[in-house]
Write a structure and sequence with these properties.
The protein contains 6 helices and 14 strands. The chain is an alpha+beta fold. It binds D-MYO-inositol-1-phosphate and calcium ion (3 copies). Belongs to the inositol monophosphatase superfamily.
Length: 254
Amino acid sequence: MILEQIIQAVRECGEMILQADRTQAAAEIKDGQSNNLVTKYDRAVQEALRDKLLEIAPQAHFVGEEEDVHESIARGDAFVVDPIDGTTNFVKDYKCSAISVAMTHDGTQEIGVVYNPYLDEMFYAQRGKGAFCNGKPIHVSEKPLQQGLTLFGSASYYKELVDDSFRLLRLCFDRSMDIRRSGSAAIDLCTIAAGRAELYFELRLQPWDYAAGSLIVREAGGSVTRVEGGEIDLTKACSVLATGTGADPSFLRV
Ligand code: IPD
Ligand code: CA
Ligand code: CA
Ligand code: CA
């Protein structure tokens, strides 16, 4: 079955991350933005995933973060891939990064797989069939934010978003038990899906950051919208707000 084949491919590539010699990672700056990093391992994992995934579904488009040109996912089958989500963590050996693979059909996620090789946690979901971690069903938290954790992200190279991100973070801080910043949006989304935290937001993410994780949250019973409300859009960058069933995020929209 295709889900198992994708999981197997992702697991094998997780081993590449664990075996990587970081001293040879040769981090480069991307798009002229300092702090926006890419390494030869981001590219190597992406190439390995491309080969394996296109063997599973040769008809699919392949949309990987580290490609120069991104194909449209609006029609037909597509793989939306982040080879290393959490590149800065990888460069720093912070041991909190993931591989994120979504399979979409006509722009809608059908399958989402997020693998954290450091914890050997494989999160996955198929549309309409629930969400799982290492074979066990997962569910979002029912707790209100006052008894919960807020997760957030804010890439330091999106300078125009910093003030707003931290204004909203302050609102969350005042309403939560505590806040956390993992450095991997895909892991943040799976943390919400697994009921380990109650609210996650980030003001700008790219489709490969959230395509898989957002399906996993929804299949775990949670909600995923834009921070300002409305549907997330897999065809372009957008803000992402994910919550369990007990957290009321309406204070973020005033
Ligand atoms: C980044 C991570 C980070 C988030 C950034 C993303 P990358 O992805 O998910 O947590 O705050 O917005 O770009 O570049 O490490 O794949
Ligand atoms: Ca990146
Ligand atoms: Ca990413
Ligand atoms: Ca990445």
